[in-house]
Predict the 3D structure of the following.
Amino acid sequence: MNENKRTAMGDKPDVFNLSCPLPLRDHATVQLAHGGGGRFMRELIEGMFLPAFADGRPKDPPHDSAVVEIGGARLAFTTDTFVVRPLFFPGGDIGKLAVYGTVNDLAMSGARPLYLSAAFVLEEGLPMETLRRVVESMRTAAREVGVQIITGDTKVVDRGKGDGIFVNTAGIGLAPPGIEISPRRVAVGDAVLVSGDLGRHGMAVMSVREGLGFQSALESDCASLAGLVEAMLAGGGDLHCLRDLTRGGLAAALNEIAMDSRVGIELEEAAIPVSEAVASACELLGLDPLYVANEGRLVAFAPAGEAERLLQIMRSHVAAPGAAIVGRVTAEHSGTVELRGRLGGNRIVDLLSGEQMPRIC
Ligand code: MG
């Protein structure tokens, strides 16, 4: 098991607490929340997977992809499984997600994505035309990003024992020498930037799933972030850490980094971009956009002195015209995320037990 592996086991464990793994709560069976990117999933990884596979202790804080050195080359390696329901939603589909999701996890290490695998779990009775649409979508996404799908697997389960299509993709990318983008490098004083407005993927999926009337205004942000990261790296600044915002939204990503990097993170509510459509949909459903899933957004950590220049690079890229500086890293309240509200009050943005919305990616 390599040092900074995370994704093959689901998500990020708290590397500093592994000598005393969190007890698995009293669950005799797996709950939906165990796959939700929140506290339950963290407990499952720390209580079951890490002790089994990583001798309980990766050397580095876990990240979106593992970086291993093989024959002088630094390879990023990651895997992700997609179970979104419905298979097609405004702005995307499970095939597009499966390509972009894995490409984005590779990009978060600064790697150039190169090769993917594609494994399908299909349910008996699935219309061949549905499968064809998903495969076509994967082909288009892979071509756009410049990755090749070079290996794969097909399994079929009995009618009623699956849900149409589940897809797993694993990916390999080449990390440039001398570039280290990792939670380990997050430092007090760093600026926190997001690449655009939050919550569109989650709300676009919810809108069709719940049959709500606002879907016309909402499209998933589902997109590759590889080109954006390449532009950010080409800018020459010192990027400390990147993380794509998926399940659990900005809140989950920042909580993980605050815990793993043992820092505090302070957010300015007024600076966090949320579209009108997402804000009203969230209000209607009683959801907080900070916790809603994205599939084409990242959070970046960089020294405060470089933040403005980085912001301009991001804004001039097609994937991040709405980028914003939303907060900073502090020495206070280590391991937690605090939000400074529009009206001046502060509140803790905690890690949820599960996800607000299961099967969102
Ligand atoms: Mg990720």
Remarks:
- Residues 1-23 have pLDDT under 50 and may be disordered.
